[in-house]
């Protein structure tokens, strides 16, 4: 989720990098749920309708292959359980997802697929089964995958602080608070 408004404040100290030039031969930790969410947007309607889709798996594999192509070793870190301290926040998110699903189904029944799709993208719930599909495919490529006890942030920060990873790919500004020096937002 991140700290609202932090990244725009840090814009003046951000700099563009090249994966190929700046990180070849290095290890990058990846917040896998960020990629899972992005990949799931492409098949949101199928997922809500309970249809099998691997669009989200292919989305992640495309990015993994890009890193491998540039001689970067990715380590994908997946969220585990919800933090007990965030139970209220998760309940609100679940309620919002259910409301968006109901709206999307109503739009679909009315023949408005575009608005239905927009609602479905807001209600996609990333399941452990979806994460497992990605993990299986990544392991076939020899890519390391870690399932964190709770949120991936702490494990990603550990990988960097321990010198295992030289950078982290995420969309979450929390990693900066955890002390990660190089966070790639892509």
TrEMBL record:
Gene Ontology molecular functions: 5'-3' DNA exonuclease activity; 5'-flap endonuclease activity; DNA binding; metal ion binding
InterPro entries (UniProt xref): PIN-like_dom_sf, PIN-like_EXO1, TPR_rpt, XPG-I_dom, XPG/Rad2, XPG_CS, XPG_DNA_repair_N
The keyword DNA damage appears for this protein: yes
Cellular location(s): Nucleus
Keyword terms of this UniProt record: DNA damage, DNA excision, DNA repair, DNA-binding, Endonuclease, Excision nuclease, Exonuclease, Hydrolase, Magnesium, Metal-binding, Nuclease, Nucleus, TPR repeat
Annotated ranges, domain XPG N-terminal: 1-100
CC per GO annotation: nucleus
PROSITE patterns with a match to the protein in the record: TPR (PS50005), XPG_1 (PS00841), XPG_2 (PS00842)
Ranges where the XPG-I domain occurs: 139-186
E.C. code: 3.1.-.-
Sequence intervals crossing the membrane: none
Cofactor: Mg(2+)
Enzymatic class: hydrolase
Record note on cofactor: Binds 2 magnesium ions per subunit. They probably participate in the reaction catalyzed by the enzyme. May bind an additional third magnesium ion after substrate binding.
Record's keyword annotation contains Hydrolase: yes
UniProt cross-references to SUPFAM superfamilies, sorted A to Z: PIN domain-like
Ranges occupied by TPR repeats: 97-130
SMART domains attached to this UniProt entry: XPGI, XPGN
UniProt GO BP: DNA recombination; mismatch repair
Principal location: nucleus
Function, as annotated: 5'->3' double-stranded DNA exonuclease which may also possess a cryptic 3'->5' double-stranded DNA exonuclease activity. Functions in DNA mismatch repair.
Family to which the UniProt record says this protein belongs: Belongs to the XPG/RAD2 endonuclease family. EXO1 subfamily.
Name this protein carries in UniProt: Exonuclease 1
Organism: Desmophyllum pertusum
Lineage: Eukaryota, Metazoa, Cnidaria, Anthozoa, Hexacorallia
Gene that this polypeptide is encoded by: EXO1_5
């Amino acid at each position: 989720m991140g700290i609202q408004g932090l990244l725009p404040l840090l814009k003046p100290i951000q700099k563009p990098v090249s994966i190929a030039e700046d990180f070849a031969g290095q290890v990058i930790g990846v917040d896998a749920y960020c990629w899972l969410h992005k990949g799931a947007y492409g098949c949101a309607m199928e997922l809500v309708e309970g249809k099998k889709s691997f669009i989200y798996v292919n989305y992640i594999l495309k990015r993994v292959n890009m890193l491998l192509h540039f001689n970067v070793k990715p380590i994908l870190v997946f969220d585990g359980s919800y933090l007990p301290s965030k139970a209220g926040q998760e309940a609100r998110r679940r309620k919002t997802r259910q409301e968006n699903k109901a709206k999307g189904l109503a739009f679909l029944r009315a023949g408005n697929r575009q608005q239905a799709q927009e609602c479905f993208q807001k209600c996609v719930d990333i399941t452990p089964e979806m994460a497992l599909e990605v993990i299986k495919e990544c392991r076939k490529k020899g890519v390391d995958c870690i399932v964190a006890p709770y949120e991936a942030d702490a494990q990603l920060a550990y990988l960097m602080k321990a010198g295992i990873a030289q950078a982290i790919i995420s969309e979450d500004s929390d990693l900066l608070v955890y002390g990660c020096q190089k966070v790639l937002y892509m």
